[in-house]
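Marked as duplicate of an earlier ticket. Keeping the data here for the record.
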Amino acid sequence: MTVSDVLMVIAVICIWSLLLVNVALIIAGYLYYIETENKAVPEIKGEYPMVTIMVPAHNEGVVISKTVESLLALDYPHDRYEIIVINDNSSDNSAELLGDIQRRNPQRNLIIINTDAVTGGKGKSNALNIGFTRSRGELIAIYDADNTPERTALRYLVAEIMNDSTLGAVIGKFRTRNRDASLLTRFINIETLSFQWMAQAGRWKLFKLCTIPGTNFIMRRSIVESIGGWDVKAIAEDTEISFRIYMMGYRIKFQPKSVTWEQEPQTVKVWFKQRTRWAKGNIYVIVKNLPLLFDRQAAKIRFDILYYVSIYFLLLISLVTSDVLLVLHAMGYVHTTIAGLSSFLWLLAIVLFVVGIFVTLTTEKGEMSLSNLWIILLMYVSYCQLWMVVAAYGLYNYFKDVIFKREAKWYKTERY
C-alpha cells in the first residue's frame, strides 16, 4: 500500500464518519419533527414572566423599523415584556427611525440605547452587555436586527422554559425571508432547513443538546448574571454562551414552532464575508473549550466539542487531501489503487446528500417540489464546495487576530 493509498483511506474514513453522523442527525431530526408536529406547545401557567427582548443593531436603518414593529406585535401581554434596541455606534438614520417608532408607541416598554465610538462599536457581545444593564426581565430573549418573528414566537419560547426547570435556554427556528431573491438565497434556504433546524432537532432528540443560534432564543436572566455576561472577544457569541450554559448543568431545547424570518445575503461577496466571520468565531469557541474534552464534568457535551473540532479541522483537512490526491492521480503525478473506490464513495455521498436534504424539505410547506432536486445537486457542486474556502479563510483570520491581538468589532452584513 502506497503513502497515497494510506492518506486516501484515512481521508475517506474521516469524511464518511462525519457524513454518517449527519445522516443519523437528519433521521433523528425527522423523528423529532414527527413527534412535535401534532403536539401542542405547553401553556404558560400562572402569571406571565417579565421578558426583556434585546436587539443589537449597527447601521440597520434599512430593516430595523420592520423588526421593531414585528416585536411590538407579538401576542405576549404588552405589560410583560420590554424591547431594548442597542443602536450601537450607527452612522446611518437608525436613531431617527427608532425615535419615530418610540414616539408613536409611548405606552409601550420600548427602550432605545444609542451608543457612540467610546461606549460601543465593539461588536454584538459588547452591545448585548450594554443592553443587559438596562434590562428588567427574568427571561432574556435575543433577536437580530433583520428579524420578523411570527406573533407566537416569543410565547412558545417562554412556555417551554417555564415548564422545565432543567432548561437554561430554548431556541426557535429561523427561516429565510428573501428565499426567492437569487440562486444564492435558494441555497441558503435549503442549508438553513437541513443543516440548521434539522441538525438541531436531531441533536436534541439524541443528546438533549442544542447550540444557541444568533437569534430567536430565550434564556434565564440568572444564567447571564452568573457567567458575567457575553464574552466580548467572541464573534460567535451564541455558540460560546451555549457551552457555558452546558457547564452550568442546564440543557438547551429546540422548539421548531417558534419561528422567525430573517434576511439572508443576496450576493456571494456578502455571504462570504458573513460566513468567514462565523467560521472564525466558531474556531475561537473550539479553541477556548478544547480543554473540556478532558474534564469529567463536561462529559455530556463532548459530542458537541468533537463535532465542531471534526467539522472545522478534521473534515477540512480530509476533503482537501482527498481532492488533491484524486486530481494528482488523474494527472499522473501520484498513483493510488483506491481511486476507483473513492470515486464510487464520492457518488454515493452525493446520493445521501440529496436524499437527506429532500427528506428535510418534506417537513416544510411550500418547499417540497421536484424543481428543488436540481437546486440541491447544483448546491452540492458549488455552494457546498465553497465551504472549504470559507473554513480555511476563517482559520487564517482567527490566527491572524490572535497574532496581532485584534479586538472584536461589528462586521456589517449588507441589508436589502
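See parent ticket for discussion. The mean pLDDT is 90.
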